[in-house]
């Protein structure tokens, strides 16, 4: 080949005008085409991608070429183009043996050896190429590619980075650097490389997908989803994309959408345990437990002895209110080696749901020992302690929960309930009111506040809350009993009775109910019914001084003093020795006209410290019956000092003052009784008597006439006194001045 032709071909190669080279060579007469020209022709055909033609041309000079490095290189290149990598490697091997200093031969040899998976030999050849040409970015990148395929990402990254340093910053190298960084968990750096690669590749589905997944790894889920959805818009709709979208959507709690993508992956043929577990978990978060179980059971069919799966099935069953079944799976997870706080908490929750609170607490304490110091754990421990009536301990855990930041309806409700249970009802009410302020508006909260108030001497307010609970639909034995009891406490016995009747209709028929009935019936004048209830309570097993006292009280109100005294005696024999008992004995003895005996009991009561208008008025009345009027006056006056607004006391004080001949003073008290009211007719009779005694005949007559308006003057109670007063008036001379 002439020097001139050689220069022309070199220039055309530099300009990549390969077809012109072919055309120029074809213009040369065949006989004038030497080995070198034909070899250049083969090279040009290679560069045009006409590999078969190139081989045909090159093999026409085989005899001369076999010992020529460039000829072997070009034959190898043609075979490589035809994807006959083994044959290509054979010729590149010959070429490098004939010219061991040409770097590109080693590159091509390494490149083709990699294609037939002779990676070690390929690496040796490529490293030799780099040794001969340290800035050979193709060789550096190819070495990186081999290391990447061998999962040696550190080495791969090293060579890709070298290629980048020497100017290779094309899409292929940049994305491979990103990939290696991903595999080395250097995802922030990986993202930077992918973003570099994105310039001009905005519609590259693979790259958009890779950016999306990398953003997901670094928890920038919203952005990750955005890139993945771009890939979807560009037409990607495969298992991987739908699975990844589902996973990232789940991370930002878009569980409905996550389920949609997971189901698309299932429709496209994915049927592995990962997908079924993801579907199950997301459905569980959405409280779709039945559907969740379907997927978890599918997963179980293809994945036996999976700790997470057994745990999740247990969790789901517990949330479906199937704690017994849940425990079977949770115990299986335990058998498979799970022994962490989560498992013990779940087992504790299930046991608690079954009412096995002691066993539940044992599991919950294990969760605590395993490092769980969560609000949920301490809340659950507190709840179980409450169920066991260990309210003081429960409160300690609830206080921990509050310090950890829980401040919701549940906490305030539990705090209130447990404080009530230990008698701290005032504090309990404050917590319960907080629960209402936060929006709780059900019968339980109003019932519980009612309880707090009623035990905190705010019974009337308590009743209001109980009635609100009733309005909201609660109508059980407990609530009706509480309302009745509260009305009893404030002395509204009539109001209590309908609630006791409702309680009885709802099935309560115990000692408490019958005793409560007796109290309310007795205090509303229905003593016969009260006694019947008390005897029923006795039949049910009550046998104490209170019962006998109540029976006695009601017999007394029926004027059956002898029977009353029998039961008062029984109460005393059972140990009752108080003011009330001896007051009742004294009162009933007086009813039987056993005034001396009765007086002894009244005096005993005074010695025991009773100091009220009742006892002094009763002593006064008894002394009057015994004719000890001066002493009677003294006691009635004490009674008046203690209660100046009692008509009966004023009336009786007036009577005994009259008997003592103190008519003016007597009239003052009788008039006071008349003002207070309640003894109409009787006060008129007394005033008539007093005026008659002081010779005020006309006034006496007026009062005596009033008697007939109010009283039957022929009755045994009135007749004798009426006639005495009348005779006094008639016997009095009318004096004229």
From TrEMBL:
The keyword Lipid biosynthesis does not apply. Keywords: TPR repeat. SMART domains: TPR (SM00028). SUPFAM superfamilies: HCP-like (SSF81901), TPR-like (SSF48452). InterPro entries: Sel1-like, TPR-like_helical_dom_sf, TPR_5, TPR_rpt. Residues 316-365 form the Tetratrico peptide repeat group domain. The keyword Methyltransferase does not apply. TPR repeats lie at residues 69-102, 103-136, 137-170, 613-646. This is Tetratricopeptide repeat protein. It comes from Fusobacterium varium ATCC 27725.
